[in-house]
Write a structure and sequence with these properties.
This protein is mainly beta and 128 residues long. It is built from 1 helix and 11 strands, in the order βββββββββαββ. A hairpin with a 6-residue loop joins strand 5 and strand 6. The chain is globular and about 40 Å long.
């Protein structure tokens, strides 16, 4: 199991940019998932990427505004969120799994796949 530690949650105004880091303590490649638990809603996949970033998926609500990336030297994954909207408010969780065999990034974000490891969550509030 991969230990994940995330941070970067904050209170920001609409239209601003925020980047969430998530450090993964692992020596192997892994798939990445970013999920959002908005108030009154179930946790849903926002952005996911397969091993080596061969396949990447973004939810329609964030496509063009959010970018998923990773820094292998720092063993850290990132979710960059630009042009933030009030509806982006929620707790964001990073997830990782080195055991995935094949599969698309869409499948990883569908909620059907169960990630091996999860971060503790970061609160992001977008409001005036």
């Amino acid at each position: 199991q991969v230990r994940l530690v995330e941070s970067g949650g904050d209170l920001v105004q609409p239209g601003e940019l925020l980047r969430l880091p998530c450090t993964a303590f692992s020596e192997v490649d892994f798939a990445i998932g970013w999920f959002r638990h908005a108030p009154g809603q179930e946790r849903k996949g926002i952005a996911c990427s397969s091993k080596s970033d061969v396949s990447t998926y973004y939810a329609d609500s964030v496509k063009g505004r959010f970018i998923i990336s990773r820094d292998n030297a720092k063993n850290t994954m990132y979710l960059q969120m630009d042009s933030l909207k009030p509806e982006d408010t929620g707790v964001y969780y990073c997830a990782a799994d080195p055991s995935l065999i094949g599969g698309s990034a869409w499948y990883l974000c569908s909620g059907t796949y169960s990630f091996d490891s999860w971060g503790q969550g970061a609160q992001v509030t977008v409001s005036w």
